[in-house]
Write a structure and sequence with these properties.
single chain; mainly alpha; 64% helix; 0% strand
């Protein structure tokens, strides 16, 4: 009797031994067909709760290969983004519908790394897939923002920048702020306001994220945001002032 591939992999993923689970994930990533991957999705979703950071992230990467839920670079121009949207219309527009179990499980994960990664991917998918309806894109944004807001609302645990608690908090906030810049409509969730809070945080440094400012302005009404950016041009930190000027220039403001 021929041994079933999926049975072997499912058993291996349930193993108490990390090396066995790692080998199983690598095998799936390398050899599994799309149909086999679909059948293994429940087992991969279960792996998102694994105690090992490396294993649960590996499981997520394997599962995401089925969804085509991929990140978009903020460096892409609007034209390039449109091209991607057209190219992927067939499969990518069905991501949230065909893989709801995976997305829901990831967003509800007790682990920040899983939550934030999928929230970022969901928001970037919304940004790039302009062929989707505005209602669907807005729903993607809403679900992703719920995760970002959770971490952005957490108070700084300590001002000691060498403590593990501070490093973890800083990492979570950083990923959440990056996620805001990926939303299809960041102004809907006051993304610029969140950046203002953290770029000017009295006890933490987030100025490395300042180049994202240009992606936070609403196309429909950039006036108010541009006034804020004009004020930030006077910031003594060069990266913030230069990023504010660049953002103004991108949006056609003569002060940029």
């Amino acid at each position: 009797k021929q041994v079933n591939f999926n049975e072997i992999i499912t058993t291996a993923l349930a193993s108490p031994y990390a090396d066995i689970k790692k080998r199983a994930l690598t095998t799936v990533q390398t050899h599994a067909s799309s149909q086999q991957l679909k059948s293994l999705l429940p087992a991969l979703v279960g792996m998102l709760a694994d105690d090992s950071l490396n294993l649960r992230e590996h499981a997520l990467d394997v599962a995401l290969a089925l969804t085509e839920l991929q990140p978009i670079s903020l460096a892409l121009s609007d034209a390039a983004t449109a091209d991607i949207a057209v190219d992927k219309t067939g499969a990518a527009s069905q991501v949230a519908h065909s893989n709801e179990a995976l997305i829901s499980a990831a967003l509800a994960s007790p682990y920040p790394d899983i939550q934030l990664k999928v929230a970022q991917l969901l928001s970037s998918h919304s940004r790039q897939c302009i062929a989707e309806s505005q209602i669907v894109r807005a729903e993607h944004d809403k679900r992703a923002y719920a995760v970002f807001a959770h971490y952005l609302n957490q108070a700084i645990p300590t001002a000691d920048k060498n403590s593990e608690d501070y490093k973890q908090w800083h990492q979570h906030v950083t990923q959440a702020l990056k996620g805001l810049a990926l939303l299809s409509a960041p102004s809907t969730y006051d993304a610029l306001g969140w950046y203002a809070k953290y770029l000017h945080h009295p006890d933490a440094h987030f100025q490395a994220l300042a180049p994202n400012l240009m992606w936070l302005i609403a196309k429909e009404n950039p006036t108010e945001a541009c006034e804020t950016l004009a004020q930030w041009q006077q910031d003594e930190r060069a990266l913030i002032s230069q990023s504010a000027s660049l953002a103004l220039a991108v949006w056609g403001d003569t002060r940029g």
